[in-house]
Amino acid sequence: MPSPGLLTPPAAPGENAILLHACCGPCSIMSVLRLRDLGLVPTLFFYNPNIHPLSEYLRRREGLLAVAARLDAPVILADEADPAAAHPGPWLEAMAALGPGMDDMKQRCPQCYDLRLVVAARTARDLGFAQFTTSLLYSRYQNRQAILASGARQAGPDLAFLPEDFRPGLTEGVRLSKEWGIYRQQYCGCLLSEHERYKRLLINVTSGSET
Predict the structure, then answer these.
(1) What is the CATH number of the domain that holds 140?
(2) Does residue 175 sit within a domain?
């Protein structure tokens, strides 16, 4: 199955090239800079069907493009040729398979990581990259061990997963994203994380408390 959204595959990557799955603009800043510090040449890859609603998806997509422009980094948008790559259907199917477990982050998030990293790894292979990683490893809110496990599952003799820890750059990444005016989201991306982020407001309203 071909990777989504690839109009014309870029030139064959060099030996230091790495495909960086990008979850959003803010998380990608220090991920790119750290990879460059390691002597690598990252290409950003945006595939995140977990992000809802579409208006939120578009804001994060725009933020990533702004970061790519600032850093002069190549970027591949999975939805560029096929808008269906932005459709939440695959994420919804993965969550439905969990049943009541979808409300448990320890069950839900690993499925979401797999969903995205499977496609990232397939894209890396299709384009001839020898390694890949993800900006999800920048966030202190993500389940790092689950991300590492997912990346390792997608790797193989022909493709390495780089388990780099981007978190030491957190403070600088926040500073730069604010300085550059990059959209900074208030929840992970999916509708369940949005619900968890804002449910306190509902509790306050239904209990008669002031918000």
Answers:
(1) 3.40.50.620
(2) yes
Residue 96 lies in a domain: yes
User: Exposed, middle or buried: residue 17 (CB in 10 Å: 0-12, 13-18, 19+)?
Assistant: buried
Q: Residues with Cβ < 8 Å from 106, sequence gap 6 or more?
A: 143
Is 65 inside any structural domain?
yes
pLDDT tens for each residue of the chain, 211 residues long: 344 444 344 566 888 999 999 999 999 999 999 999 999 999 999 999 999 999 999 999 999 999 999 999 999 999 997 899 999 999 999 999 999 988 888 999 999 999 999 999 999 999 999 999 999 999 999 999 999 999 999 999 999 999 999 999 999 999 999 999 999 988 788 877 777 777 777 777 767 655 4
Nearest to 62 by CA among 10, 9, 24: 24
Q: Are 176 and 170 in contact (CB under 8 A)?
A: no
Residue 129 domain-assigned (yes or no): yes
Entry pTM: 0.89
3-state secondary structure of 47: coil
Residue 139's φ and ψ, nearest 5 degrees, are -80, 135
Looking only at the bridges linking them, the beta strands covering 131-134 and 160-161 are parallel
The count of structural domains within the chain is: 1
Instruction: Report how far apart, in Å, the C-alpha atoms of 95 and of each of 88, 91, 145, 151 are.
Output: 11, 6, 20, 20
Provide the domain limits for residue 138: 17-184
